[in-house]
Design a protein that fits this description.
The structure holds 2 protein chains of 2 kinds. Chain A is about 30% helix and about 20% strand. Chain A has 14 helices and 20 strands. Chain A is globular. Helices cover about 35% and strands about 15% of the residues of chain B. In chain B, strands 1-6-5-2 form a 4-stranded parallel β-sheet. Chain B has a two-stranded antiparallel ribbon with strand order 3-4. In chain B, helix 5 crosses helix 7. Classes of the chains: A alpha/beta, B alpha/beta.
Chain lengths: ~450, ~230
């Protein structure tokens, strides 16, 4: 039996049901359930599978005609002009509405979370709706989605939770399964073994979403703009195709890009501990790039390190590129408790764990850790915050690492830069705006 | 409009391997770092890095060696393994430019003083070509020939469709290849050719190809990316 509600290439079908798939496909197409398109559309110069336009034209030995393949979705198998892409329609099942809730989570929501949760739940009862939940880092976005998901499940709908990063999929899976213990939940990422299974709740990375075709009634998109994918249209393309034409979309983000801010939205401008977000302080240093090579000449770094050690705190040092991580750690290696990590570091997970346990006091890292890692009593230092790869969204996200816990609700955020860039100003304005909204609505204690 | 802007401010080229900004040879700094260039003393026959300039054990053990010598650009380490498999099996064809650059460096280092009549490549079976869509050795030879201005000629045909070499053990590899190549008709007498392939492991592929060409009175040198 082939999985339904999918968009698949021949080589993927071959993996699911070697040879047998051709028979199955014939049966399905005689019922009008399948349509095919070439993997890459040469007239529009677009990949039909991922919507990408980053094509590579080749001298193809298979079709011996004009041919191109898509470089954006290559890791999921090669989408070429001469390989057909099969759109398999979803099997409509009898929908049975339940009268009882499936949610086992018994926590409490703050009033602003509750408001967001209710708005989103109303959405589920309508069709073809979009909504943005704009919540600050650490506001508890995941909990807000529980009630809408529960609503959808009660109506017999299929739910997709999509997120750009595999780490987030792995982190969400146990939380969702715990909240809905009787529901079948699967987690899809590159190495997942559950790729062809059916479930009521599917948690998936962007790339895996590309394999679905009009299957889901409710799609929740978490961390839309996470680092490797912001400004990448692939997720939107994938999600638009994966939802049913009548399906609803729920975006969750702390730093929504401009085009999402136009959607109907609910904001959660304050964290549950009712303290404002830390507003970044800017420290301007002349000749920063040069002085980072000889860090003894940069007093501010030493002051910060001393402050962190004396007050038993922990610190994130964010730098713009991998080379600088190693450079800084080498210069600071007389401190045992300073370590560095980046996307290429094989020991990354272990270092993050040691940082969580407090064994490492200061972690020098690139944007790879801008989300997800939550440690109490942390300060955030962004070095070379004026670098072009730090935009408003990532600066806000990094600032959001500070003051996550009840014990230390504020924290310090410092941007060290040579000059004030527009993105830095926008990020600070964004954080101040959030605090203002929170204060206005009486969500803050101070 | 976008196209005009791209002309004025071209986007930086991307590393074919990891999407970072290109630094050299179509690769980024980080990927370049992980590649080990072959330098210093090597086996005079097969180009393997050795302590002293001599002949390595494998070359000693081989009964009949038909090629004059082989030279390789880089070590076949984990990084290279994943790059080659991304190229060959996943089909990231734009990586061929990087490999051609590596081949060019090795060519300039070892073969600059030798004059070749043409380049040729290890062929793949028609059926395999249909499946994969391209012949990696042919592509590399083509892009190398653009850089070093020596024509590429097709001199060999693969007649046997066998399992992939990469899935076999040493002895099986050597046996599986016997009689799997044939001569492709060519023009003009050729004296010296340079045979291009992606990886040199046991040397059996290169040796089998060389056997056919030596019969025609052609001297065969070989150049591969990984060793």
């Amino acid at each position: 039996m082939l999985p339904t509600g999918r968009v698949l290439l021949e080589e993927e079908l071959e993996r699911i049901a070697p040879e047998a798939w051709r028979e199955e496909m014939k049966k399905l197409s005689s019922r009008g359930k399948v349509k095919t398109q070439p993997g890459v559309d040469l007239t529009r110069r677009t990949c039909n599978r991922c919507g990408g336009m980053d094509l590579h034209f080749v001298d193809c030995g298979s079709c011996r005609k004009e041919c191109a393949y898509c470089t954006s979705c290559l890791q999921m198998g090669r989408s070429k002009t001469c390989t057909p892409l099969y759109y398999i329609e979803d099997e409509e099942e009898e929908r049975t509405s339940l009268t009882h809730s499936l949610l086992a989570w018994k926590g409490n929501l703050t009033p602003s979370q509750l408001e967001a949760s209710d708005t989103a739940s109303d959405l589920v009862r309508k069709t073809n709706q979009k909504c943005l939940i704009w919540a600050v880092c650490g506001a508890g976005k995941t909990e807000v989605t529980f009630k809408p998901i529960d609503q959808a499940l009660q109506l017999g709908q299929k739910v997709l939770i999509a997120t750009p990063r595999k780490d987030v999929v792995l982190e969400l899976f146990p939380r969702i399964q715990q909240a809905f213990p009787t529901v079948r939940v699967i987690a899809l990422h590159g190495k997942s073994a559950q790729k062809w299974e059916e479930a009521q709740i599917t948690i998936s990375t962007t790339h895996q979403v590309l394999r679905f075709y009009q299957k889901f009634d409710l799609v929740v998109i978490d961390e839309v703009d996470a680092y490797p994918y912001h400004n990448n249209p692939m997720l939107y393309f994938a999600v638009e195709r994966a939802r049913k034409p009548s399906g609803n979309l729920l975006y969750l983000s702390a730093t929504p890009p401009d085009y999402l801010r136009k959607l109907p939205q609910v904001r959660i401008p304050a964290r549950y501990h009712r303290k404002p977000l830390a507003v970044p302080q800017i420290v301007l240093e002349r000749n920063l790039a040069k002085r980072l090579k000889k860090i003894t000449h940069l007093d501010v770094i030493h002051q910060i390190i001393n402050y962190i050690f004396e007050n038993q705190r922990q610190g994130f040092f964010f730098v713009p590129y991998i080379g600088l991580v190693e450079e800084l750690v080498n210069q600071l290696n007389h401190y045992d408790e300073i370590e560095g990590t980046h996307s290429r570091d094989p020991a990354r997970e272990e270092k993050v764990r040691r940082f969580r346990e407090g064994e490492i006091r200061i972690l020098v890292t690139t944007t790879i850790l801008e989300r997800g890692v939550t440690v109490p009593k942390t300060d955030v230092i962004v070095i070379q915050a004026d670098s072009s790869i730090f935009d408003e969204a990532s600066l806000v996200q990094m600032s959001g690492r500070a003051g996550r816990s009840l014990l230390d609700p504020v924290g310090t955020v410092v941007f060290i830069a040579e000059e004030k860039t527009r993105e830095m100003k926008k990020a600070i304005k964004h954080i101040k705006q959030m605090n203002k909204w929170a204060k206005k609505r009486g969500l803050l204690d101070c | 409009m976008l196209n005009v802007l791209n002309l004025l401010f071209p986007l930086p080229l991307k590393c074919g391997f990891c999407d970072r900004r290109e630094y050299k040879n179509g690769m980024c700094k980080q990927c370049m770092k992980e590649i080990e260039e072959i330098k210093g003393n090597i086996c005079e026959r097969c180009g393997r890095p050795l302590e002293t300039m001599s002949i390595c054990v494998d070359c000693h053990r081989r009964k009949d060696t038909y090629f004059v010598c082989n030279r390789s650009a880089v070590r076949y380490n984990e990084k290279m393994k994943s790059m080659i498999s991304l190229y060959k099996y996943r089909g990231q064809e734009k990586l061929v430019l990087s490999f051609a650059r590596l081949l060019e460096q090795a060519y300039r280092k070892y073969y600059n003083h030798i004059s070749f009549d043409c380049l040729t490549y290890v062929p793949i079976h028609e059926q395999r070509l249909k499946e994969r869509g391209f012949n990696q050795a042919q592509q590399m030879a083509f892009y190398l020939s653009l850089r070093i201005k020596i024509p590429v000629k097709r001199l060999l045909i693969r007649t046997r469709y066998a399992d992939k070499q990469s899935k076999k053990q040493r002895q099986d590899r050597i046996n599986a290849l016997t009689n799997s190549f044939e001569l492709h008709p060519y023009q003009a007498p050729l004296k010296r050719v340079l045979l291009i392939d992606d990886i040199y492991t046991t040397g059996s592929t290169v040796n089998e190809c060389a056997k056919i060409l030596v019969n025609e009175g052609i001297q065969v040198y070989s150049l591969t990316v990984g060793r």
